[in-house]
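Please produce the structure of this protein holding zinc ion.
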Amino acid sequence: MAKYRCPGCGYTYNENDGDVREGYPPGTPFAALPEDFVCPDCAVRYKEDFELAEA
Ligand SMILES: [Zn+2]
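Below is the modeled complex.
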């Protein structure tokens, strides 16, 4: 699965791990995150800003 990085703070969303703290279980594809997803770390970058970090 892929990883996506926030260009603002470097937070990386790993599809394998999800983000349990934010309510996304392991294996949740980035594409399945809500459209209003914001970076959990900096809260200023939206889903569309994230960059593919590793496929
Ligand atoms: Zn961020």
